[in-house]
Amino acid sequence: MNIINARLRGKAGLFRIELQGDRIAAIEPQADVVAGSAVDDLDAQQNLVVPPFVEPHIHLDATLTAGEPKWNMSGTLFEGIERWAERKAITTHDDIKTRAKKTIGMLVDHGIQHVRTHVDVTDPKLTALKAMVEVRDEVRDLVDLQIVAFPQEGIESYANGRALMTEAVAMGADVVGGIPHFENTRDQGVSSVKFLMELAERTGCLVDVHCDETDDPQSRFLEVLAEEARVRGMGARVTASHTTAMGSYDNAYCSKLFRLLKMSGINFVSCPTESIHLQGRFDTYPKRRGLTRVAEIDRAGMNVCFGQDSIVDPWYPLGNGNILRILEAGLHICHMLGYEDLQRCLDLITDNSARTLNLGERYGIEAGRPANLLLLSAADDYEMVRSQGHALVSVRHGKVLMRRTPAQIERFA
Ligand code: 17E
Ligand code: FE2
Predict the structure, then answer these.
(1) Measured between alpha carbons, how far is 345 from 363 in angstroms, rounded to an integer?
(2) Where do runs of H (alpha helix) occur along 233-349?
(3) Which of 60, 121, 166, 342 could connect to 100 by a Cys-Cys bridge, CB 3.0–4.6 Å?
(4) Could you tell me the mean pLDDT of each successive run of 10 residues in the chain, 413 residues long?
(5) Which residue's CA is the closest to the ligand 1 atom numbered 6?
(6) Choice from 57, 78, 81 to test ligand 1 binding pocket (greatest atom count within 8 A of CB)
(7) Beta strand 112-120 with 144-150: parallel, antiparallel or unpaired?
């Protein structure tokens, strides 16, 4: 199969992308627009062809449970954790698998092929983890799934938290998580980060910590995580998710912090729709946005990407799998609608996220790499967000996985 009349990000002109089996065989410039010759040629119609969208942060064990048994009435992270604990108590293996697979279908419909999911392991039976390890295998034709052992109710503050984390890794979690701002004390927050970094280093896992997801400017576990990563030389394998407290740090502290963050080389995920909804809840007016410093992290040359976090769960009632919606919201909320940001905004849901997930040569439109790619509905990044465009075709392992027919409009005058 070949893709013809493709535009590639950062390159002038049109290209023909030749796929052989499950690999990209060659990428050749085209002098002119061409007509398809083979029956199975895909015509990109002079629009962008990009590697698949990435979902770097979602909780697939909790999706599609909003209101069961009760709604989150305050809109806070903390009430979300309480409501989830009630739902978690009645979950089953099949319940987790059914909802996770349904949600993965929603992600696939929007061009996502790589997913990192946090899975709550603060459960003596590890029900969700066992189910998600099976799901990871069963959805291989749809997405590559990374599983984070995520201690929703704490590592130090939850009974046998350390043992559950260790067991989750032994059972096949790919990534070690954490939640230091939720531990009972500051000391426990610090010791939880040291514990999880040690576990990851020993087992070869990646790291992705829910870190400082609060408006509390005193929540400063990011510096602990970054320093642990720096000393161990693990920065590229470590991610700090949310870091919303950074939106409340004063500039004097933040300028010192940025020096360490840069030295550490860690990655960042922001979930802008989730954070604008959950944070700022203890403010009246002026009301904080409750997001990390996305534009500043990006401009400092560090790696940052956007995630959805939730789809219809105790923390966030909306969501449909469309990461482009998150991109559009995030660009607004983070003051990133400037010309230069718009020129390369798809980085925030493609290349930057792939780097966060350590996908390496498993990702990208280059000869020799997997034949996983998207045909988009616009010719550049700016037009893609402006037009609220879509992934029209998703190709995975050299075969068409999803095709979207855009809505047809009839006008009569
Ligand atoms: N759990 C958590 O601690 N934070 C979140 N944003 C979600 C779950 C969705
Ligand atoms: Fe999260």
Answers:
(1) 18
(2) 251-264, 272-278, 294-299, 323-333, 339-343
(3) 60
(4) 97 98 98 88 97 99 97 98 98 98 98 99 98 98 98 98 98 98 98 99 98 98 99 98 98 98 98 98 98 98 98 98 98 98 98 98 98 98 98 98 95 97
(5) 309
(6) 81
(7) parallel
Nearest ligand to the CA of 61 is 1
Task: Give the position, in ligand 1's atom list, of the atom nearest the Cα of 275.
Answer: 6
Report the chain's C-alpha Rg in angstroms.
21
Residue given tokens 């002119």 in the structure block:
32
CA of 152 relative to ligand 1 center, distance in Å: 8
| Cα atoms in the 13 Å half-sphere on the side-chain side of 53 | 32
Task: Report CA(296)–ligand 1 centroid distance (Å).
Answer: 23
pTM recorded for the entire structure = 0.98
Sheet holding 53-58, edge to edge: 53-58, 112-120, 144-150, 175-176, 206-211, 238-242, 267-270, 303-306
Among all chains, which residue has been given the structure tokens 């009430």? 79
Token digits for 90? 């009645």
- Residue 229, token pair as written in the block: 């990563």
**Structural domains in the chain plus CATH codes:** 2-51+365-403 (2.30.40.10), 53-362 (3.20.20.140)
Task: Measure 309 CA to ligand 2 centroid, in angstroms.
Answer: 5
Ligand 1 is surrounded, with C-beta below 6 A, by 59, 77, 152, 179, 210, 213, 274, 309-310, 315
Beta bridge partners of residue 393, listed in sequence order: 375, 403
* Active site (catalytic) residues: 213
For tokens 């003051």, what's the residue? 335
Q: How far apart are CA 1 and CA 11, in angstroms?
A: 22
Question: Residue ranges of the alpha helices (H) in 67-126?
Answer: 77-88, 93-108
